[in-house]
Amino acid sequence: MDVIDRMSDTSVSRLDEISVSISELSVQGSHLSTTANELREMAANQEVVFDQLSVRD
User: What sign for the dihedral angle of Cα 9, 14, 18, 21?
Assistant: First the structure.
């Protein structure tokens, strides 16, 4: 029975570690999403600037 208890404790500990990792990945994913949206907006703004430029011969 002691082996089962230790295995159970190990499983609970591992599940806690996995939960923490998932939470951290979720936060990182949120940051990446925010960064991607900011980059998309910056690219759109750059396109507007480039559209306003003209080349003279």
Answer: positive
Tell me the two tokens of residue 30.
Answer: 């949120």
For residue 10, CA distances in Å to 3, 19, 31, 45 come to: 10, 14, 32, 52
pLDDT tens column, 39-50? 999 998 888 777
Give the 3-state secondary structure of 1-57.
CHHHHHHHHHHHHHHHHHHHHHHHHHHHHHHHHHHHHHHHHHHHHHHHHHHHCCCCC
How far, in Å, are 9, 10, 15 from residue 5 at the CA level? 6, 9, 15
Quick check: pTM over 0.70?
no
